[in-house]
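User: Teach me something about this protein's shape.
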Amino acid sequence: MNFLSDPIKVISTWLTSLLTGWGLSAGLTSVLLSLVGIVLMITAVMVLDIMLVWVERKVVARFQGRLGPNRVGPYGLFQPFPDIIKLIIKEDITPDGADKLVYNMAPIISLGSVIFLWAVVPIAARIYGADLNVALLYMVAAGSLGTLSIIMAGWASNNKYALLGAFRQVAAMISFEIPMVVALLIPTILTGSLSLQVITDKQSGGNWFFLLSPLGALLFLVSAIAELGRSPFDLNEGESEIVSGYHIEYTGMKFGLFYAGELLHAFTFGGFLSILFFGGWHGPAASTYPLLGVFYFVVKAMIGYWVIMWIKYTVPRIRIDHMLMFNWKFLTPLAFALLIVTAVTNSLLKGSSFYMPGMFLSNFLLGWITIEIMRFSSRKQRLAVKAPEPAVQH
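Assistant: First, the predicted structure itself:
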């Protein structure tokens, strides 16, 4: 068996023969192999998370006309390691009156909720954790643990600023969860499956779902940014209002876990964007050489992550009432309208030669109608502002 064509199978076969040679039973060998796979996946994800610290700092430096890390290692590549050491040796403070158990569990759950998502990510043709037939439901359920960790941190810190920041973020996450779930239903309609493996395989040969539903990809991206709490939706960290939000009382590595979870979550959403709408690991020769598929997946996920950073560092923060109105009065109605249009168009045109252009044109038409409605509404508001006030009779 060729290592390049199926590296996981080769390693699994070698470890199985090694463990059975030591006299272990087949059941215990299977359990140990699963544990080894979980540890390797978590290790790879955490190493990637360390490098994301460097990537984020270099990108924001370029946006702001700075150099970024450039001293520790070539191009500052090893800078994250001194940062980790600094966080580890910093004093660990627990506020007076805090609920210690809940306070200490919050950062662990925050990072764990992101790592749980990687259990269903198809990284390559034969490299993945679990092929669940309800992977999208699992994705929504696991991601909701992040919301729980935020409210735990804000409530257990015994700090009103932290609690206010937690309430803000939870309000945003619950609100934007609706258009995100609707956006997740679009690939489900196009494939008839909730499995990420099936969704990825249906996009082989360059048949990306982005070409069928560009509005769906845009909806997912905007909802993901709001879920992450990144600008322009970073109301949980309104420094001029609530200092730093739900994690203001956290120091040292506890704060580091929140920060690592945020960076990894952004990259993970970039990966899901590539899986749902841009073919995931698919690319030239990716089916034959899974390691090449890993490269394609990481590149696509990194592009999605870069777009999220681009928006964060160029768009200013908006008010929370504007953010919620944007969701409930614009994004959610648009998401449901897109879902209906996608379902109807897919049912009418599926199997025809006009399927792909028809799906794209239906999105274009819905987008044009939305822009016209917005234009009419803004014109009406401008006229109302410019209208002369009625004369007051004395």
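Now, about its shape. Residues 18-89 form one domain. The first strand starts at residue 122 and ends at 124. If you'd like, I can walk through any region in more detail.
User: That's plenty for now, thanks!
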